[in-house]
Amino acid sequence: MTTPFLHINGLRKVYGNVVATDHVELAISKGEFMTFLGPSGSGKSTTLYILAGFQDPTAGDILLQGRSLLSTPSHKRNIGMVFQRYTLFPHLSVGENVAFPLRVRRAGKDEIDRKVKKALKLVRLDGFEDRMPANMSGGQQQRVALARALVYDPPVLLMDEPLSALDKKLREEIQFEIRRIHQETGVTILYVTHDQEEALRLSDRIAIFNKGKIEQVGTGPELYANPATHFVADFIGDSAFLGGELAAIADDRATLRFADGEVLAGVPLHGTGTAGDKAELMLRPERIELAAGPGREGATLPVVVEDVTFLGNNSTVTARTGWGDALTVRLNFGHPMIGSVARGDRLHVQWQPKDAHVFVKP
Amino acid sequence: MSIIRLALPNRGRGGSGLALAMPAVLLLLAFFVIPVAMLLLRSITEPEPGLQNYAALVGSPTYAKVFLNTFFVAGIVTLITVLIAFPVAWALTIMPRPWAAVIFAIIILSMWTNLLARTYAWMVLLQQTGLINRILISIGIIDQPLQLTNNLIGVTIGMVYIMLPFMILPLLGVIRKIDPSILQAAALCGATRWQALTRVLLPLATPGIASGGLMVFVMSLGYFVTPSLLGGTANMMLAELIAQQVQSLVNWGMGGAAAFILLVVTLGLYAVQLRFFEAREGTR
């Protein structure tokens, strides 16, 4: 096996008796855009801070091109970082902020001028050299921070929720810029966010963090189509979970019995279980069809409509099964049933068994 | 129409504002402006009209030494206070809250303790047979007790102690506003601890150092109790000179001239600080 560019090897961090990260294992290739996605307190930021050298791990190692980084202090790691808060030096102009990493490295004047110019051009802020950070918008400040983090050509760039303080429109604009900069520079990026949309938009691969552990690593489509756990299914995309129990298992397919006795066979199973175990059926809203009566093909369940919400390009129908679990169905604009569906309607939902997933409850 | 209607209440408010400020203005006039003006007047009229009091102060080596002592001690005290207060303020910022609160309370309490009591305490500690000399002798650093009172060393030690809170408080105000992640950013940018201190932390703390430094320097220039108790008669400072002229010699002219020079120097320093730091605040 070849040595990975960046190897996070069995990283574990314990504060007192709280385990912040536990056996985090990840191999990142050169030039990859890897996002750590998870709720707050899931260990994604702790992992990033250990990479930055702000914290030491309790166990495990971080290897960059095969060499451990742990004994190297932050200022010698040569890693770039953009923070959640605006961390430009308020007493220095934009140009001096970007020049700072070169000045502390005692670079020559010509080199500093040339690289600062190049970095500011990269983030489309050429000509802003003499501005003070306080006279810039939040989005501009984060772009300067990006220029400052890239001006010394670090092999790895860390980004800790850099857009969380910005409003939605600006966030999307800068996401686009980050993608462009990643493509232009080819720098390896580790990006932390709790926003699944941001993660899907930016990343080559996503590592889903939960309770200090990585639940699953994969590309956006992989995670969406084949979530390994209930948590991943819940975190990436909208999904409905219907409770039941395992009736039978054959290979990686399960037969599920719902609370009202309804039985469903041939659903992809995740995790291990035996007949009689509690399990959940996961359905994506766009994979569910709404119909007046039971269909002939696939799986079907009777439901009662609870609410209909018009959202422009689609309408969301919330319905409840006979035993009380809620699920949503998305009807694209133009669907014949839009307009006729109303609260209290008794309808059927249908789907293909292969589009559903069964997760065994622990 | 609308312009008139808008303008009238404004003018009314302006007039009543001046009326509201009158008590304060009268108070300042009666208790500050008039006495200072009288002092100035006496310094150029007593014993006879002219600038001979100022000429004497500037010309005589005795008085020159008093000015030199005063500015030298005030300068050294300011410098040492900055050197001690900066790490203290930084430590108070980064240490756990409960500890910081305790240490902060100790600093404030020392400020509230009677000044004479604190100065006498230093006299006891610093004298030939005092605690400090005895400790230094017993651990073998010195053979003979050091002369720590009745000279400028004693004055400096006592003044630094008394001035420290006046430096720590403004510094703390400025340093607490600095986001610690700015220093993390500096570290990842490649700055060593020393570079982060000199290139980021110190420049950001400069307004606090300037306002604390000005306060300590100006207060030190006019300080009376500590220099007179710890300094002895041979090392007179300006406040002692003024007291001596007015109380012992009943020479209001000379005392007034010295006090006026002190006032002018103080106002001058204040103007410099305003110009440099207020202007910089403005461009932010």
From TrEMBL, chain A:
InterPro entries for the chain: AAA+_ATPase (IPR003593), ABC_SmlMolc_Importer (IPR050093), ABC_transporter-like_ATP-bd (IPR003439), ABC_transporter-like_CS (IPR017871), Mo/tungstate-bd_C_term_dom (IPR008995), P-loop_NTPase (IPR027417), Transp-assoc_OB_typ2 (IPR013611)
Annotated PROSITE patterns: ABC_TRANSPORTER_1, ABC_TRANSPORTER_2
Stored Pfam families: ABC_tran, TOBE_2
UniProt keyword terms in alphabetical order: ATP-binding, Nucleotide-binding, Transport
Domain ABC transporter: from-to ranges: 6-236
A molecular function (GO) term: ATP binding
Keyword hit for Transport: yes
Signal peptide region: none
Family: Belongs to the ABC transporter superfamily.
Entry protein name: Spermidine/putrescine transport system ATP-binding protein
TrEMBL record, chain B:
Homology family: Belongs to the binding-protein-dependent transport system permease family. CysTW subfamily.
Localization per record: Cell membrane
Domain of life (superkingdom): Bacteria
Membrane topology recorded in Swiss-Prot or TrEMBL: Multi-pass membrane protein
Organism: Pseudochelatococcus lubricantis
Entries under InterPro entries matching the protein: MetI-like, MetI-like_sf
UniProt-listed CDD domains: TM_PBP2
Protein name: Spermidine/putrescine transport system permease protein
Nucleotide-binding is among the record's keywords: no
TM region positions: 20-41, 71-92, 99-117, 152-175, 196-229, 249-272
UniProt keyword annotations, A-Z: Cell membrane, Membrane, Transmembrane, Transmembrane helix, Transport
Domain ABC transmembrane type-1: 67-273
Nucleus listed as a keyword: no
Main location: membrane
